[in-house]
Design a protein that fits this description.
The chain has three domains: about 220 residues, no CATH class; about 200 residues, Sandwich (Immunoglobulin-like), CATH 2.60.40; about 190 residues, Rossmann fold, CATH 3.40.50. About 35% of the residues lie in helices and about 20% in strands. The protein is built from 19 helices and 22 strands. A six-stranded mixed sheet has the order 13-12-11-14-15-16, with helices on both faces. A five-stranded antiparallel sheet has the order 7-18-20-10-9, with helices on one face. Strands 8, 17, 19, 21 and 22 form a five-stranded antiparallel sheet that branches. Helix 4 packs across helix 6 and helix 10 packs antiparallel against helix 11. The longest helix has 21 residues. About 25% of the residues have low confidence.
Length: about 700
Amino acid sequence: MTDDLTHLQDAMKAATPEPSKKDADLALAMKNFDDFHNACQGSADPARPTSDRPTHRSGLSSGVFKMFHSLTTRGALAATTSIVAVGIGVLFYTQQGGTTFDLPKPAPVIDATPADTPAPQKAADAAEPVAPAVDETAPDTRVRREAETTTTAPAMGQGLADSEAREDATLGLLAEQAASAPTEKDMAESAITDGVVMQGYAAPPARKMVSPSTGLVIEYSEPAVVSPPSDTETFANADANPVKITTDEPVSTFSIDVDTASYAIVRSSLMNGQLPNPDAVRIEEMVNYFPYNYPAPEADEAPFKPTVTVMQTPWNSGTQLVHIGIQGELPALEDRAPLNLVFLIDTSGSMNQPNKLPLLIQSFRLMLSQLHPDDEVSIVTYAGSAGQVLEPTQVSDKAKIMAALENLRAGGSTAGQQGLQQAYAVAEGMAKDGEISRIILATDGDFNVGISNPEALKDFIAKKRESGTYLSVLGFGRGNLDDATMQALAQNGNGTAAYIDTLSEAQKVLVDQLSGELFPIADDVKIQVEFNPAQIAEYRLIGYETRALNREDFNNDKVDAGEIGAGHTVTAIYEVTPVGSDAILNDVLRYQPAAEIDDSGELGFLKLRYKEPGEDVSKLLTTPITSDMGQATDDVRFSVAIAGFGQLLKDSKYLQDWGYDDVINLANSSKGEDAYGYRSEAIKLMRLAKSLSRE
């Protein structure tokens, strides 16, 4: 340190400043000093030190002296080179007539993106104003420009006894700025978050600060500020199902839905301290998120079994609930057919966030541990263009598959159409008789190159599903999540849609329930319920708005519907109003004939159609619905609680004064066995929603 001081002292002795420039700069500095002190309040002695005030040490040299004295006696950063540089630089300024002092330069740009990757936009608060062209040699102009383009330090003179104390504080501030200035190592590390290189990272322009007592301009850099993504999320939803008059429209038809994306999106919003967008709430997906223990089919029966329960409605004493629970069989997985999987991975720039591509890679790592050694995996990626980064590889060579995953980087636009086309081509090339082929698309849904309209994607996927390849979609990240596109892909690709927001959710979807996600047991499953107008005056289906079918679609095997996987459960709930109930919402029409008396006691008739995987002709199952059917088990009651929760989040008009306390009590009393803690988590979310709704 002594050598450094000696070197700088020698440099100062050797310098020969230009007298005119020195005088001009010194005059500006003193003027700046006087202007500042005249603006201060509570100062007993605002005047600057002059030759007429010999009792005070020169403000500049006194401040430097006291700064070093303070640092050494108080033990605060005593030997920090950056602080020494500031102190010596202040003295050097008076000898050289310079006007700026440079702190450490920003780190070099860290760029791991392809050449066509657009650089991220700079945050609004980091933008620097563009100064007009001015004569930098004019003293008045320099003072004015510094005032316009720099950040002036706070008023340091308030409450200080004299100018010496004010200058001490000013130089202390300079020392703080130097001590906190980021080093090159800091800047480089700030470009990496959770192991993900921030693509297109560039250091922002230097900021400036003016010392009020000297006019000294300090330049320093700050780590880049990355703007949060704008909220451009879109969700697949429709208006809530209305109450229907049974005599007008006795038949209700819809496709089953085993997707779970909506529940995970709702959870993500609540855990971030905000109520979810009502459009993001699809009640059937919230209900079907949870595993239920409905009665399973016998070995010689259909691949799934429906169970009907009729119970009192918790939120309306004048209505009843018709609860339909479907349990899929779980075949012996050791005898299952080999899998051909194509991981279609979105590596566009929008995936460059810790909860997107890095979480995706971790999720697939979990999944690989559940596959058989002779299953095959290929990887196709898409960004500015699509490409196959891993040829079909047996899972027994897990190291090769993981190496391909871990080498993925995000950057570029989103050529989703190209990626889908190549993934289907790869899957068709891998397919063999008796094997199952499935594409697993992992994306935030942001398709912006090629086909991006959900309807156009629907048509494209509808043609491709004839090849026998299933398409499932995993959503990642928030902010620009295109849920509508993801739903269009999954629904028309004979697959499922899930949203992965945590590694725990990846464990649930890709490990605990992997068989249901990958191994279909029934295709194109449709439900149709005909209500008896002699028993039921009104009804409404809770959820399934995006899965509605026309009445005639039920018997048309060309119309696509949802799939049931091995071990899957599916739940559908109707709220029905018996004839004669005071809860009937619609008046009886004057000229409509009265319903014929039916003594069968049937409330309605349930029909289901499905196809065996790979078959083109559907099969039919039927079950009459009576008022004494089934018992309201914990599974049934908990699913009803979740249906009530979803309606609260959508601010349903059918719940009357039933609120969050009621749904929490119902969920608590019916939680039953909760091996994985999913139901306990749901109750916590209900409490969060209650608190947020009061805000």
